[in-house]
Amino acid sequence: MVQRVYRVPDVSCQHCVRAITGELEKIPGIRSVHVDLDTKLVTVIADDSVSEEQIRAGIAEAGYEIAG
Length: 68
Fold this sequence. Notes:
With 68 residues, the chain is of the alpha+beta class. The longest helix has 12 residues, at 14-25. It has a three-stranded antiparallel sheet with strand order 1-3-2, covered by helices on one side. The protein has helices at 14-25, 52-61, and strands at residues 2-7, 30-36, 41-46. The protein has one domain (2-61): Alpha-Beta Plaits (2-Layer Sandwich), CATH 3.30.70. 32% of the residues lie in helices and 28% in strands.
């Protein structure tokens, strides 16, 4: 298992949470997704088989950009 944290400055509401969570949960091997609206952080826990590129693509597919 691996934990990855991404700063996503445009998250601001429950719609954002649902959009990101929904896209990431489609990826096989994603174990949990937590979107913190206050800190603008998306925390993903996934199997080692899930690549960083897959997670980044899922967040992009939801319509959001990762800072940095």
